[in-house]
Amino acid sequence: MKDKQYYSIKEEWIAMKTRKIVKMLLAGISLAGVVCLAPSDGNAVTGRCYECHTMHASQHGDDTLDFLGNATLGTAVPYETLLKEGCWGCHAGVDNDVAVPLGTPQVDDNDGALIAGGFFVASSAGDAAFHNVADFDGSDSNFVTSSGVIPGTAQSYAINKFSCLGYTDGAFTKACHSTGGHHGNAAGNLTTPTTVAKSFRFLSGVKGYEDPDWQHTNASTNAAGSHNLYFAENVAFGGGGVATTGTLDSKCAECHGYFHSRNADNTGIKGTTTWTRHPTDIAYPATGEYATYVPTTAYDTNVPVGYTDTTPGSVAGPAVICLSCHWAHGGYYADLLRFSYGTMNAHSGANTTGCFKCHALKDT
Question: Which has more pLDDT, 238 or 331?
Fold first, then answer.
């Protein structure tokens, strides 16, 4: 965890950035470069090159200027691909409610309407509530040495190795978001993710429908503009192997493989006759206690599912996915959960949240 001086500096930096944006809006000045992604169509970045890039990492004798001309929080310059700053330059430091409608999804704020991925800001649940990206909040205090392992794998974990781009430690390299997509960013239902730009949210190789405003606004339908539509497999219990067909879960599985593998041993999610870990990329049942939640007609963004067909208005094949229970970036509860696991009490009164949204007969 950072000391008080760090947070004082960070708060000042955020305030400076917010004031500059407000001034620009009041003056009617273009936010090109700051507002990188246009929510109207989600296509390629537009604006002046110098808003994002610097030729020599130097301006007016100062080599630590960020996108808005303010002093950067750190000193890790120059940045790759001649950028003025890292991912946080556009995606952190401004309130979700302000920035998302303007066109840049913010992931370092938790006091507004959450976007689809959640946030990286510390909550009362501490480090366990979010992926610990070094760019934002540093290492997880639970991993104080490299003796720990990444959950769901036998791979040892080294602190401060996880970034927006994934985790790299020696030969072990696994990607989350990938670079190289902003200038050719495709939009809508991405079914042929042959490049980063054509992949769902720059998750290389992943398919899916991108909601234009990152679910800043959402609806219970599966129509275009309602919410993200996540691509998934929906195989039955007997299916084997780890999904490798462009599903969102297959990306999570790159690090957390045991939580996805359908091996019938301690490295998988099933035994010989029943589940040993919660299923992922598995068909969501339409009968029994599960029948009360019908995502194809009444989708709940608090309990997302995946689809084998992510065409807005004609989705098919609902499946349980990682995001059904967890946030991608982080949230308010431990283990990146969308709900407080400690308050899930079986047969203790009516409850339609968390576990009981799907397991509807186990609350009362």
Answer: 331
Q: Are residues 296 and 206 in the same domain?
A: yes
Residue 109 to residues 117, 132, 316: CA-CA distances in angstroms? 12, 14, 34
Cβ burial of 14 (10 Å; 0-12, 13-18, 19+) is middle
Residues 199, 348 within the same domain: yes
CB 354 within 8 A of CB 339: yes
Q: Which of 82, 98, 116 is the last residue of a domain?
A: 116
Q: How far apart are the first and last CA of the chain?
A: 41
pLDDT tens for residues 275-319?
899 999 999 999 999 999 999 999 999 999 999 999 999 999 899
Q: Which of 175, 180, 176, 214 is nearest to 197 (CA)?
A: 180
Write down the pTM of the prediction.
Answer: 0.83
Angle at 89 between CA 199 and CA 102, to 5 degrees: 70
Residue 173 is which amino acid? T
